[in-house]
Amino acid sequence: MLVLGGANMDISATTEHALVPADSNPGWVRWGDDPYGRSLLEATQQAGVDVTGCWVLSGQSTSTYVSLHGPAGDLAVAVNDMHILECLTPERLTPHADRMRHAAALVVDCNLSADALAWVFTNRGNTPVFVDAVSAFKCPRILPWLDQVHTLKVNRQEAQALCGFAVQSDAEIESAAQWLHGQGVKQVVLSLGARGVYWSDKDAAHGWQGTLPAAVVNVTGGGDALMAGLVHGFGGHQSLADTIPFALACAALTLSAEQANHPNLSVVSVTQLLRNATQKVSP
Fold it and tell me: pLDDT: is 213 or 158 the higher one?
């Protein structure tokens, strides 16, 4: 699996009481152990990820995401500074074209520039591409390339930005998936927050899947964990129907951590969470 994109430093602040706009709110601020990009690279390497293709750019600020949460862990507002991704140009990507074409799958998101995305889809060969829409503002960048997307993860707002019609009711959610299939997307996963997901495979099944029980501490990172679970299932040659529960378990585990990435996220821990949830609902 090859991931094309940047590494974020996540700073999460949670208020002690209900958020009061335009005022200083007491609460907790959680930052990584080290605010520098080097620590992100080292942590990724220690997790077993091959980082030989990563760049550390001098004179640039590490991509940063600052989020503010209410006392229940729900996201109130966020600000991101991802300008460094503008440095991820076709010229920098070109030396990695062969590696990309031989990857089992590519994972990209719409934080990449339109030029970078164009380069990826023009040079990917037959490698399946997984896309995280990221935001309603940025996801239109993927519109010219929908016919080359294997799996697309969106929320309601992102789906609406792509489809051009309201995506709120169940019927509209299903229509959005069908519209995306009509554009060529093979698999669609539409995140519905606390409700779970609607998933659809163009050539097979579709359905609704609820979330797993989770003590939500911080919602930041839940969508990323969901995508990681989807890619993991694909790597294990599982159908989308079989992959969805695992992906939702990845998200549930992540939501229970103060960090954007659960330090114990693994196949073993996710499988155990799934097993425990199944036992609780069994008669």
Answer: 158
What ranges do the domains of the chain cover? 1-87
Tokens of 19: 């958020």
DSSP-derived 3-state class of residue 167: coil
Cα distance between residue 138 and residue 134, in whole Å? 7
Contacts 24+ apart (CB under 8 A), 133-137: 133/109, 133/158, 133/159, 133/162, 134/109, 134/110, 134/158, 135/110, 136/160, 136/161, 137/161
Neighbouring CB atoms inside 10 A of 104's CB total: 11
* Mean pLDDT across 161-168: 97
Q: Which residue's entry shows tokens 């060969």?
A: 125
- Give 108-156 pLDDT, tens digit per residue: 999 999 999 999 999 999 999 999 999 899 999 999 999 999 999 999 9
Point out the least confidently predicted range of 41-55, 217-231, 262-276.
41-55
Rounded-to-integer distance, Cα 23 and Cα 12, Å:
18
C-alpha 255: how far from its chain's center? Answer: 13
**Alpha-carbon distances of 81 from 8, 40, 60, 65, 236, rounded to whole Å:** 9, 16, 11, 6, 34
Q: What is the pTM of this model?
A: 0.83
Q: Which two tokens stand for residue 190?
A: 């539409």
d(CA 194, CA 237): 28
Which residues lie below 8 Å from residue 166, measured CB to CB, with a gap of 6+? 160, 172
Tokens (6 digits) for 242: 């079989």
151 pairs with which residues across the strands? 130, 187
